[in-house]
Amino acid sequence: MTDTALLQLSQHLATVAAAAVRQVGPILADAFGPTIKATDKTGFRDLVTEYDHRSEELIFEHIFRHYPDSAVVGEESGAHGSGAVQWFVDPLDGTTNFAAGIPFFGVSIGAALNNQMLAGVIFDPLRRELFSASLAGAYLNGRPIRVSPTAAPADAVLLTDFPYSEQATLPNDAEFFHRLVKNFGSVRRLGSVALELAYVACGRVDVAFSALAKTWDVAAGSLLVRQAGGQFIPLENLHRRFQPPVWPTPFFIAANSQLKIEETMLTELLVNTP
Fold this sequence. Notes:
By secondary structure, this protein is α+β, with helices and mostly antiparallel strands. It folds into 2 domains: 3-144, Fructose-1,6-Bisphosphatase, subunit A, domain 1 (Fructose-1,6-Bisphosphatase, Chain A, domain 1, 2-Layer Sandwich); 153-272, D-Maltodextrin-Binding Protein, domain 2, CATH 3.40.190. 35% of the residues lie in helices and 27% in strands. The chain has helices at residues 3-31, 50-66, 95-100, 173-183, 193-201, 215-227, 236-239, 267-272; strands at residues 38-43, 46-49, 70-74, 78-80, 85-93, 106-113, 116-124, 129-134, 137-140, 143-144, 157-160, 186-188, 207-210, 231-234, 252-255. Strands 4-3-5-6-7-8-9-10 form an 8-stranded mixed sheet, with helices on both faces. It has a 5-stranded mixed sheet with strand order 12-11-13-15-14, with helices on one face. The chain has a two-stranded antiparallel ribbon with strand order 1-2.
């Protein structure tokens, strides 16, 4: 495929994804409120609602209708189809926030061909913010976005969901979180990996860190960050724990291009985690 053809495909996939999230966005926004019922999925800290399932079904239908040559992996229903373009769908990222009435959740769709991310869309239905990326660039509601210029970790805002409620608390978790707080200007735990990556891409924050995300959480956001001029650094030592390896890697440091991540304490996780 020529570079021109790949660019055109990338833009087309981004258009398909954007239409899909716009379709489900109003459903999620209208449903958001104190009466949402959530049930346990894999445990009491891993919740799902009827809107996770409804959103995913609509997105799947849209993708296969508008791009039949697809293979789609969704958080709720797994893999469907065997086409050339692989899609990663998180129909409601931030379900705990959604169910609790906290207005910070979104929809994330990434598309890849031959293990190259070509398109990514993240939609915040409450704020009506559409973050989109293709090989042509990264955008927020159609306007180009760039990562922040912050160069010093001490001045940086870091987003993370660490420590994680989904896994057993380790003895050094509190110490590691303390070091995050000590080394970065501000640390926030917001509850939606997709939106956290989108915020890095548009320059609202400077760095995001996760060691317990899922592929559908990061597929779109990884491209957004890179196309906005940032860096998406896989935590390869955590990635290697999975056989076969998971792609795209769900363990990452995402930051603007000015921050010297290798000079911060986050590198110790890369080096020292078995």
